[in-house]
Amino acid sequence: MSRSRGFTLTELLITMVVMAILGTTLARILINNSRFVSRQDAMLSAREAARAAMNTMTAELRLVSNGGLRAASRDSVRVRIPIAFGMLCRTTGGSTIASLMPYDSVMYATATIDSLAWLDSVGTYNPVGGITVTSSSSQATCDADSIRVVPGGRLVSLSRPNVGQPGRLFYLFPTVTYRFGASTELPGRRALWRRAGSAAAEEIVAPFDTAASFRFLVGPRLTPTATVPAVLDSVRGLELRLIGASDYAPQGETTFRRFDLSTHVGFVNRR
User: Fold this and answer.
1) Three-state DSSP class for 199?
2) DSSP helix/strand/coil, 207
3) 259: number of Cβ within 10 Å
4) In 10 A of CB 166, how many CB atoms?
5) How far is Cα 225 from Cα 98, in angstroms, rounded to an integer?
6) Among residues 34, 68, 162, 246, which is most buried (max CB within 10 A)?
7) What 3-state DSSP class applies to 151?
């Protein structure tokens, strides 16, 4: 009769050591892989914040015209954006009637118009604030000045009388403020806020690193400077330092991931 041979104590110890080494190696591989994925997700989060802010701001900021930069600092800019133009007609019923040329309907519908500037006979634009715009059917008022509504345009009523000379060109502006400030969605973090006119500010993208800021393009070479120029109309564009941050610190780390995105936005409507 044959007997099965069992394991010796030495063999058991060797087997346990080998299994421990394999288990430790496998655990390290899994931990390293998990940390790699966490770092990639954190970097993607920071990148998405920076790119979302860039896409939101560049569409509006590039439209700024002469005198359009109204206030500026490292953390905020306030601009007037021309979104429509047309011809002024006469005053009727306490309002000025005007004929708008064809315009971007989406931008117009989402804008909060609060001012205009009309061109006088010597080529100077005269700003007028405190304006609201509504639709009008007073075509006869414009007919008296031989002004028609062209296809794609519209007739509007400006809330103030005698805002400018009839027959003069004018532009409509919403005032928009962008600023970096404390986030309400992510307490303790930094966000980009947008405010249209005097309406409540809206948090549009978060989070950002504390180094995110605005710089100012000046001179013929559009040289960026962190110092706000004494004459704001000398600014020819903005450098957006959109340094996004991740929502969380990656596994095994104590700091948020950053994605540095800087882009120049020239004021294309500035003469």
Assistant:
1) coil
2) strand
3) 21
4) 19
5) 41
6) 246
7) coil
Nearest to 215 by CA among 254, 241, 180, 189: 241
Q: Where are the domains of the chain?
A: 80-174
Measured in whole angstroms, how far is the alpha carbon of residue 102 from the centre of its chain? 25
What tens digit of pLDDT does each residue of 81-116 get? 999 999 999 998 889 999 999 988 888 888 889 999
pLDDT in tens, 227-243: 999 999 999 999 999 99
Under DSSP, is residue 226 helix (H, G, I), strand (E, B) or coil? Answer: coil
Select from 150, 126, 129, 149 the least CA-distant residue to 139: 149
Separation of alpha carbons 80 and 107, rounded Å? 14
CB 175 within 8 A of CB 195: no
Report the SS3 class of residue 167.
coil
Q: What is the largest CA-CA distance in the chain?
A: 125
CB 68 within 8 A of CB 265: no
Residue reference for tokens 């070479």: 221
Q: What is the rounded (10 degree) CA torsion for 10, 14, 15, 19?
A: 150
**Residue of 161, 153, 150 lying closest to 89 (CA atoms):** 161
**The two three-digit tokens of residue 65, written as one number:** 């015209």
Q: Is the pLDDT of residue 45 over 60?
A: yes
CB atoms within 10 A of CB 214: 24
pLDDT average, residue stretch 69-84: 94
Q: Are 171 and 85 in contact (CB under 8 A)?
A: yes
